[in-house]
Design brief:
Length: about 180
Amino acid sequence: MIYRRLIIFISFFSLLAAGCGYTTRSVIADRFHTVYVNPVINKIDITDESYSANRYRTYSAFIETEITQALIDKFLSDGNLRPTSEDAADLVLKGELVEFRKDPLRYDKNDDVIEYRLNLVLNLTLLDRRQSKVLWTENHFTGTTTYFTSDSAVKTDDQAINEALADLARRVVERTIEDW
């Protein structure tokens, strides 16, 4: 009797495990092999009064260049799509930086900010270059991180920006290759 239950138990979990939909292959790998990451365009107007009125909106010089490089690096490390020149690419990824926000999350007893959330917000479009067709468009696509300004988990703004860049690049590559 105990062997019968063991066999049923093993069979049940074998079927359950076989039914999972996870894969290590790209959904689009058979159709597309290369991608060109167009340099990200910075659409943040720091001279706009409404922008400067919000003290938590911020800017990091040349962040659009860092975003472009982070995307290229992530495509390289992922390996499903090889970054290449625009004229040789199957896909073209275009992006516009529309917001760079640093929002306070926690305050100490003196009302000093001790935790921030940093957001990099892009509008993205992925094009099939060969068929001149838009595959997807995502507005307000966000890479984010949170960080503390005091205690043992303290991070600098530069460290937080690097984490947000990594998060953004990971999400963009996943969106591209998994086509969610």
